[in-house]
């Protein structure tokens, strides 16, 4: 059995923000040893949010999503392997296999991310189906958003709603087909999810909830979808029904994987069940010391925080990942930030502070906050268009607050 060499590189597998953050933090933290990054895409590590936000709205090129320009890696002595998927890892021998070659690592970081969840009935229809997960997906979808065209979105989650917002900005007729009672229903609950539904309808989206999908067929003019027994005909179809963590390498190598909620299991320091192997970002199902349970999160901020924690531990700092989950969205002129995670136990009360406003297309959704409580404790909080509120949202999540005072706008958030 080969022993890990002290001169072997830290190897990072993945091309997303977690991977990019690990190598950045290592170099900025003074690590002077060799580093290698392997990604199966043709691009250096990049962030995912601009794919459905700024790039889709023509606010900037995709290159703005790069964690660093490609020449940064050579300048910082990071051996970057693009278009080079890792096909196997051997934790016992501390090796990876890529492009048919075996290489040794001192430490390994799995930042393999997630892949779009596919809908077989769409894929088998013969129609052109769009998913949005990678750089090339974004380029293809943006090219399809032409004024006057008609687009169907299956799924009313965050990605689906952001695509719908961008498509409407480009003059596309949009129909959203959502099986749940409301978009984002499982995350936000009836009342708050209803405000997002109102926002999209006010901007001309044909939002259909509680639908039952039937056959999907390719037609000479595009795509036909059976919805509640009727036919919906569109030019393009986008499927946005979530993502699946890419655990194939980890499973094949015998690492512990959570088969129920997904992801590679790690402790709070993001160490997997194999020595010198870490997991970060979407793929990590990590013990959370504050929430007291394992958690896997598919959001931008978690990728950054995980990257920092892994790098710190590689630098010998014994650091836990204890940040509460955070995410944001931009839809039309509405901006939102959310902190917390109710978890499997959910919430038993929602408090809305302020007045949501989605009367017409000129509205930005109003300025308000929402709070999810369980047994009197705030388990998640969100602001809409109230950018001064985020510090109070972070502070209040995890505390017990009188719901009546929480709802009373006369009581400053800073006094709660």
Assembly status: single chain
CATH class of the largest domain: Alpha Beta
Write down the CATH topology of the largest domain.
FAD/NAD(P)-binding domain
Mean pLDDT: 94
For the report, how would you describe the main beta sheet?
A: 5 strands, parallel
Report the span from N to C terminus: 59 Å
Any idea what the CATH superfamily of the largest domain is called?
FAD/NAD(P)-binding domain
CATH architecture of the largest domain: 3-Layer(bba) Sandwich
Number of distinct helices: 11
| Strand segment tally | 26
Sheet/helix structural class? alpha/beta
Using only CA atoms, what is the Rg? 22 Å
Helix coverage percent = 10-25%
Beta percentage is: 25-35%
**Tally of distinct domains:** 3
Protein name: NAD(P)/FAD-dependent oxidoreductase
GO molecular function, one term: oxidoreductase activity, acting on NAD(P)H
Organism: Nocardioides islandensis
InterPro entries: FAD-oxidoreductase/Apoptosis, FAD/NAD-bd_sf, FAD/NAD-binding_dom, FAD/NAD-linked_Rdtase_dimer_sf, Reductase_C
